[in-house]
Design a protein that fits this description.
Layout (H helix, E strand, L loop, with lengths): L1 H25 L5 H14 L6 H16 L20 H19 L1
Helix pairs in contact: 1-2, 1-4, 2-3, 3-4
Length: 107
C-alpha cells in the first residue's frame, strides 16, 4: 500500500510542471510561443511514466501544440482537413480542456 501512495505522490509532483505551464498559457501569463517551446520540450524530455489516462491527455495536447500555426499566411485552417492547423484561440481552448481533465485525474 505504501508503494502505491508513494507512486501517486511522485505522479502528482511530476504533473505539477505540466499544470503550471498549461495554466500559464491559459491565463495569458506566458505567450503562445513560450508555451509551445516549453510544452514540446517538456514532453520530449519526460522520463516519468504516467498512467494511460494522463499520458493520453499529455500526448493529445502535444499533438495540438504541434498542430498550432500562428502564421495565417502559411496555416491550413480547413476544418474538413484532418491535418489542418489550429490557431491560438483553439489551442488555448484545448489547453483549458486538458488542464481541467488533468486536475480531475490527479485527485
Amino acid at each position: 500500500m505504501e508503494l502505491y501512495g508513494s507512486k501517486r505522490l511522485i505522479m502528482r509532483i511530476e504533473l505539477i510542471k505540466y499544470i503550471q505551464v498549461i495554466k500559464g498559457f491559459v491565463n495569458n501569463t506566458i505567450s503562445v510561443q513560450e508555451f509551445e517551446r516549453n510544452y514540446l520540450q517538456m514532453v520530449k524530455d519526460e522520463t516519468f511514466v504516467f498512467n494511460d489516462s494522463i499520458a493520453k491527455l499529455i500526448e493529445s495536447l502535444f499533438s495540438d501544440v504541434d498542430a498550432y500555426c500562428g502564421d495565417p499566411e502559411i496555416a491550413n485552417y480547413d476544418i474538413d482537413d484532418p491535418f489542418a492547423n489550429i490557431d491560438e484561440d483553439e489551442l488555448r481552448k484545448r489547453a483549458k480542456d486538458t488542464i481541467q481533465q488533468l486536475l480531475e485525474l490527479s485527485n
